[in-house]
Amino acid sequence: MIATLVIGGNALLLFGTLFRPQIIGLYVVLPYYICITLISSPQRDLGWAWKRFSQNFFVLVVLRKFLGIRLMINESLAEAQAKDKAQFVFAVFPHGANADYSSVINGMLYDSLPNIAARTRTLVATILFRIPMVREISLWMGCVDARRDVADRLLEKNYSLVILPGGQVEQIRTTHGRERIFLKRRKGFIRLALKHGVPVVPVYAFGVSDYYHTSHFAMGFRLWLLKKLGMSIPIARGLYGTLISPLPVPTTVVFGEPIYFSIMKPGSPTPEEIEMAHAVYCEGLVDLFETHKTALGYGDRVLEIE
Ligand SMILES: *[C@@H]1O[C@H](CO)[C@@H](O)[C@H](O)[C@H]1NC(C)=O
Ligand SMILES: *[C@@H]1O[C@H](CO)[C@@H](O)[C@H](O)[C@H]1NC(C)=O
């Protein structure tokens, strides 16, 4: 939703430069692009998280109310985060047709996980940092570029990470009324956690799969485009049939118990260790899903792991 609004705003701005290139184009847009491409790349460093913004920016406040977003924190996570140097990899499912909710919850972490919120970053697609204003808003909400070197640096500096491992494949395959996630082949987040000796927290967002009515139109072609060009085209209808806003589906983001891997030793994990840890994570996520689904009104759903 936020991205759609801001991209629209930027399109208007660029359209404006066609008529007055000497003013906006030359003195504003060009220097801005030079600055963000050559000089300033906080998205590849520690980010630019801004607490007051992620808590109070009106679009976020409205979206939070509209979706009735609430976080449920497992008590052992609440205890663990209060310790000195606490650090986690939050692996969040599902991505949904639009993952705005994952940045929206950033501001809520200051209340729910107060000890680590200021040192938590969300990994998001590089493209967001190439669009003016989407870039700033993403940075202020605590997002950074989802590159391996960025993730490594943050974990080394005792930051926690929010990761949506399903990524764009899961986004395209989102199916209204079903809980489909793409996890079987997603192991990068496990390797990262093992390498740095950081516990992984399974997180499941109930409601997100139903934000939009989805379509499987030209699915093969869209998956091909994604694989070849890294371009994802979700076909989804939210409020009033548009992609601008999700349907008002009550959302509960459930944070499970941190998983401390018994084979955990910082360094380079072997493929077998990654395999085992991945299986443990999958089990933890399924448990989390099964534990909460009935109380949250999704008792008839099964978690489909692809
Ligand atoms: C926290 O996690 C443990 C282990 O999965 C579970 O037994 C417990 O019920 C959870 N607590 C809540 C409030 O969900
Ligand atoms: C991170 O934590 C480790 C041990 O827990 C400590 O040695 C190191 O100084 C910490 N680094 C920062 C930047 O706080």
From TrEMBL:
<comment type="pathway">
    <text>Lipid metabolism.</text>
</comment>
<dbReference type="GO" id="GO:0004144">
    <property type="term" value="F:diacylglycerol O-acyltransferase activity"/>
</dbReference>
<keyword id="KW-1133">Transmembrane helix</keyword>
<dbReference type="GO" id="GO:0019432">
    <property type="term" value="P:triglyceride biosynthetic process"/>
</dbReference>
<feature type="transmembrane region" description="Helical">
    <location>
        <begin position="23"/>
        <end position="41"/>
    </location>
</feature>
<dbReference type="GO" id="GO:0006071">
    <property type="term" value="P:glycerol metabolic process"/>
</dbReference>
<dbReference type="GO" id="GO:0005789">
    <property type="term" value="C:endoplasmic reticulum membrane"/>
</dbReference>
<keyword id="KW-0812">Transmembrane</keyword>
<keyword id="KW-0472">Membrane</keyword>
<keyword id="KW-0319">Glycerol metabolism</keyword>
<keyword id="KW-0443">Lipid metabolism</keyword>
<dbReference type="InterPro" id="IPR007130">
    <property type="entry name" value="DAGAT"/>
</dbReference>
<keyword id="KW-0256">Endoplasmic reticulum</keyword>
<keyword id="KW-0012">Acyltransferase</keyword>
<comment type="pathway">
    <text>Glycerolipid metabolism; triacylglycerol biosynthesis.</text>
</comment>
<keyword id="KW-0444">Lipid biosynthesis</keyword>
<comment type="similarity">
    <text>Belongs to the diacylglycerol acyltransferase family.</text>
</comment>
<keyword id="KW-0808">Transferase</keyword>
<dbReference type="Pfam" id="PF03982">
    <property type="entry name" value="DAGAT"/>
</dbReference>
<protein>
    <recommendedName>
        <fullName>Acyltransferase</fullName>
        <ecNumber>2.3.1.-</ecNumber>
    </recommendedName>
</protein>
